[in-house]
Every structure is written in C-alpha cells, then in structure tokens.
Amino acid sequence: MQYRTVSFYDEFKCIGGACEDSCCDNWEIDLDDGSLKLYMSQKGEFGKRLKKCTRVKDKQFILNGVRCPFHNDDDLCDIFIEMGEEALCQTCTNFPRHIEEFDDLKEVSLTMSCPEASRIMLSKKDKMTFICKEGNDRDYGLKEIKAVSRFAFWKRGHENKLDKPLFDKLYEARELIYDMLQDRTKPVPLRAVRILSFAKELQDCVDEVGERQYGSSKAYSEIDDIIERYRGKASYDGKDKCIDRDDDKSIDDNGDKCIDNNKEDDYATDSEYHNTRVDNFVSQILNMYDGLENIKPEWKDILSLGKQHLKSESCRRDVTEFLENYKDKEYEFEHILVYYIFNYFLGASYDHDILTKVKFAVISYLVILQLDVARWISQNKNFLYDDQVTVAHAYSKEVEHSYNNYESLQLVLSAHPILTVDNIINRLKGGLL
Predict the structure, then answer these.
(1) N-term to C-term CA, the chain
(2) Is there a smaller number of Cβ atoms within 10 Å at the N or the C end of the chain?
(3) Does some domain include residue 339?
(4) Each residue's pLDDT tens digit, 102-142
(5) What pTM did the predictor assign?
(6) Into how many domains does the chain fold?
(7) 425 shares a domain with 307
C-alpha cells in the first residue's frame, strides 16, 4: 500500500492534558466492528461499565453530557488504562488523522480540528509539500481501517465506486491546483479565483460525460486539454475580464463592477456596492453555519463576532487593512486552502462532484478570513499566531468533526442559489483584491 502524507506529518505528537481542547468531548464516538466486539466481550466490573455505556445498535458510546464516558477527571482514557493502547477504537486511535483511500493508495493528513495539528501546519512558512511511500497502517499511527463511504446523495444516484480513470485525471489536476494556490506572486484571493474557474471547467466536462460513460478513460480526454490550457497561461482571459491586478476597471459578464486595481482608494468609492453586495453575501454564508450542530462551545461566540462585524460601516476597510497588515503571513491562508484541497478534492473520483470540493475549500478560506478580521478588530487590531490557530481549529472542528455537519454543508454548497461560481468569484475580485 502506498501512503501519501504532508511532509510535516511525523512532527505531530499528542500533547494530552496540556491541550486546550479535548478530542474526547463534544462529538459522537463511532465504534468499528472489531472494537465493539472486543468491548462487549469484556468481563468483570469494567466489562459491565462498557456494556452500560455503549449503544450497541448505533455502534456508539453513550455520552455523559458532551463527554466520552471513559474520559476521566484527570483527562485520561479509562479504556487505555484498563485495556491498553491496542484496545482503543479506530476513531480514537486515528484522530487527528484524516484518511482517504483510493485502491492501493491511502492519503493521510493531520486535521485542523486538533489545535496541535493546526499549530504545526500554520507555523510553516514554506510551501506545503507531500511525501508518498510504501508502508502500513501502523507506520502512520493508524488502526486498520476500511474505505470511507462517499455518496453525494444530492448530486446523482449511482453506485459508490472509485472511478479510476477520473481519479488519474483529477490527481494531475490537483497538482496543478497546488501550483495555482502556491503561486506567491499573486494574492491569495486571486489564487482562489483561479482554482474555482478551473474546477468549473472540470465539472462541466464530467457532467457532459454523464453516468453511462463513467469509468471510461476516453470519456475524460477533454480534461487533458483543460489542464494544459490552465497550466500554459499566466492569467485568465475570456469571460474573466478583471483578473489581473494591473487591469483597468471593467464590468464582468454579469454586469457586476470589478474594482480598479490601479486605484489605491478604490475601497473608498461606491461604498453602497461594497457594503451591500459584498458584505451581505458574506453574511449569508455565515448564516449557513448557524444551522449546523454546535460541536465546540466557543464556536458560537467566534461566529457571532464575525456576523456582528459585518454590520459595521468600516467592515470593508477593516478587511483591506487586515490583509495589508497580514500580508507577511499570507502563507497561512495558502496552507488552509491547500489543506482542504488535499483532504477532499480526490473524493470527486467517487461522487463526480469536483466543484463542491473546491467551493468548500474557498468558502472555508473566506469564512476563516472574516472571522479573523472580526477577532482582530475586537482585540484593538491585535492578531497573533495563536488567534489564527484558535479560529482555524474551531472552524475545522465544526465542519470536519461532525459527519452530519460536513454532509449538510456539502449539500448547501452544491445547491444554494447564491453560491454560484460567478457570485463567489465576483466577491473575491470585488471585495478582497
């Protein structure tokens, strides 16, 4: 089996009780069949406790409020103490690792829902790189796992099966996306515009192929042309008339005004456009997160602060000023985008939904940025590395730590009428560049 991981993967070590959060609280702990069988076979007092605290039909522990019933007052695990590390279930053994499996390849990342993993990733100034080599689950700190079920029920009803020819094309496309996102000659919003445009063309190609031709390498031949076209040009043309920073002010095909990147005080002009069109768009995005299950208590306060800031008359200027002050750390947002692409993009080789995967990465970046700015303002324009870790970690825990939240968000990103590619691109160009 081949394993691909981020280059700093081996730097991670759980810091246990020193961690400001707990992976044993605020989420349902799903039990794999092997661990469930082991727990139900235990004798004595601890065996009785295991049976009492387990919902066998649902394959879950029964939480004590929001806390795992085996998470003791010393922030240690009673199962680990009583039965040893090998007895930990797959969920507890693998966290904070995110695993995607594609035939003979497993991709393993460190999720930002763990504060320590977030700290490691966000501290890196160099571009994120990946390592692929032969190994086994034990080499990567994993319990034996099975492929994750992927079924985009809102997209198409088809058998959940790896489309290997599409996987091969998307693997190459993802390498190009990394290059786009890590092009540090361009601002991050522009990089996000580029990958959205690219993903839209890839999705259109796959949609034209249709279900009956899934799995045919010849059916996806047009993807090669799209990849080569995007690889070969430094900037976009055609429909996007205001991509480059040295372009004149223009109007895009939807009639929306694009900012004049030559004009330093452009954010001071047409305030009604910026405040109403841009900030309302971001407000609607933040409102989507209100309907999700609350995983981390602090998340509600972080989200509320972001929504409140959008009502401020200075919101647009605050974003501009924050980006200017934070440009030396722009690599943090680059890493966040690359992280979400690495974790989820190739999943489209199962459900054929490329565009939603890229939307998820870009919207995650937009939301984290807005929450960063709100926190910066609330702290008298002070924003430290630990603040970025706090926001990125809380966001990840909310959307990645809950299967229901993740699936709900994917459905919204796929179907919500305001989240068209044109709308997102216009906000990136009109509100952030």
Answers:
(1) 43
(2) N
(3) yes
(4) 989 999 999 999 999 999 999 999 999 999 999 998 888 88
(5) 0.83
(6) 2
(7) yes
